[in-house]
Each structure stands twice: as structure tokens, then as C-alpha cells.
Fold this sequence. Notes:
Layout: H1 11-19, H2 21-36, H3 42-56, H4 59-63, H5 77-82, H6 92-106, H7 113-122, H8 125-148
Helix pairs in contact: 1-2, 2-8, 3-6, 3-8, 6-8
Amino acid sequence: xxxxxxxxxxxxxxxxxxxxxxxxxxxxxxxxxxxxxxxxxxxxxxxxxxxxxxxxxxxxxxxxxxxxxxxxxxxxxxxxxxxxxxxxxxxxxxxxxxxxxxxxxxxxxxxxxxxxxxxxxxxxxxxxxxxxxxxxxxxxxxxxxxxxxxxxxxxxxxx
Length: 159
């Protein structure tokens, strides 16, 4: 870990809540809002989230599976995400969500008109904004936890 955590303290609560409460609490609320208020389907949500986790290398994010109404994606889903270009496990929306997450994280300047035409064919404007904010959240906070070394001790409050 790259941040000193007092003995017996929850690393996430300490770093996000106590070290920088004016920023960390707001960041935590944004991070949780992505899950609480999403209108995206579970598969496209998880395809984008897992692709960002794979790029960030965040151990916690790689192990996490979003649950909705008692359902999670299948065990093989993460492997399919890593092969989003060629897998037959995805429909067009799910594949596009993984592609968007990767391009957002690695080549946002390369998001050309042809890409946006495909996005508009599968997602509403509202869904595009929601997916963009979600990807931004995962990229920023997953990378923050990975860089600081918190990803190996990350336990969300209440989980």
C-alpha cells in the first residue's frame, strides 16, 4: 500500500472519508450513484465496468460483480469482456459498451464520427451520457485505488 493506514482502520473509509472528507465523501457518493441510479442493462453495465477494471488492473474491481435483483453476469463473462471484439457471448449493445470503455480509457481522441453513429444506433442520448459518467467514475476511482494500493484491501461499507 502506498498510503499509511492507522492500525485497525478500514483503508477505504480512512482514505476516502477521513483524509480528504471534502473530496472523498463526494467522490464516494458519485461512485455509489453510478450503481444506484443506472438505467443501463446489467450486461452492458458490467461489460463497460469490467473492461475499465481490466485496463486499470484494480484487484477489487476485477473480482467485483454487480448484482441486480439477485442476478449477476455468468462466471465466464469477464473472459468474454477481455475478448469483446470476437466473443459470440455479446449482443451489439454489450460489445459496444466494452468497446466504448476501452476507447474512453485508452484513446478518447480516437472516438470518431463512425463510432458515434454506432453508439447512437444502440443507445439513447441519455444512456450515452450515463455510460460516459459511469466509465469516468470507474476509470478515476478504480485507478485511484490501484495506484494507492488500496485495491487489495478494498471492502465497501456494508459488504
